[in-house]
Amino acid sequence: MKRIEYFLVERSLLPEVFQKVVEANAALKTGRAKTAAEAAQKVGLSRSAFYKYKDGVRPFYEAADGRVITFHLMLHDQPGVLSSLLQLMAQSGANLLTINQSIPMSGQASVTIAARTSSLTGTVEELLDRAGKLDGVQRIEIVASE
Questions:
Q1: C or N: which end of the chain has fewer Cβ atoms within 10 Å?
Q2: What is the spatial distance between Cα 41 and Cα 34, in angstroms, rounded to a whole number?
Q3: How far is CA 79 from CA 17, 65, 136, 139, in A?
Q4: How many angstroms separate the most distant Cα atoms in the chain?
C-alpha cells in the first residue's frame, strides 16, 4: 500500500493551479458554483486540472477542523483585548482548553490558546481572519494542530 505524505506549504509558494483548485472547491462548497465545470471556469482553471487535484489539495484549516489547534498571538497591552479575543472564540464555537499569557513587556503580551475546533460555526481560517481584525491583536498564527 502506498504511504500518503502531507506537506504544509505557505499558499504564496504553491503553483497557481493548486491555489485555483482551493478556490474552485470553496465555490462549490459555498454554493457560488453549482457544478465542478462552473467552479473551474469561475477561477480560470481547466476541468481536467480541477479533477486531477480536487481531492488532494485543500487549505490547512479544512484538515484542522475538529482538532485541537494551538494559536499563538501577540496582543497590545491594553484593557479588554484578551477579553474580546476570548469572547470571539467562544461565540465562534471554539472549545478553549488552555490559555497562557506572558507578562506584558514593551506594550505587548504573548498569548497561547489551545482550542478544540469541532463545534466551530465557521472555518478555522474565518476565525483567524476575524481575530486578526480585533483591535489590539497584532498577530495571530497557528503553531500546532493535533
A1: N
A2: 11
A3: 45, 31, 9, 17
A4: 55
* C-alpha cell belonging to residue 115: 482550542
Q: How far apart are the first and last CA of the chain?
A: 24
Distance of CA 108 to the CA centre of its chain: 24
> What tens digit of pLDDT does each residue of 59-98 get?
766 665 558 889 999 999 999 999 999 999 999 999 999 9
pLDDT at position 106: 95
Cα–Cα dist 36/74, whole Å: 40
Of 60, 47, 48, 58, residue with least CA distance to 117: 60
Q: Which helix (H) or strand (E) holds 26?
A: helix 16-30
How many CB atoms within 10 Å of residue 78?
Answer: 12
- Count of CA atoms in the C-beta half-sphere (13 A) of 69: 26
